[in-house]
Specification:
By secondary structure, the chain is an alpha+beta fold. It contains one helix and six strands. The strands form three sheets. Strands 1-2 form a two-stranded antiparallel ribbon. The longest helix is centred in the first third of the chain and has 34 residues.
Amino acid sequence: MAERVDWISVVLVILSLPVRIVLALLRLPADLRRVEAARRGVVTCSSGHVTTLMRMARCPVCAAVKPTNVLLCPVCKTSFAAVTCSECGETVFI
């Protein structure tokens, strides 16, 4: 038996594509900043302290402790947009 095509859903998906493309382009600079910070392996807070991103860290979502990049949990795949400076405690948004 052939599946019935829901034409309204098809039309809505096609109409939503330009919106999805615009949203992806607006998110692109922030994503590129995160990729560059992860590639460098360090971030600097406004006080000038350098914080390394590759270290032993506990994921606040799944509580896994792994030596990894603190921007992405390797267990639950949660990504983070901020880290805490290891010297002064300031939140550094990436």
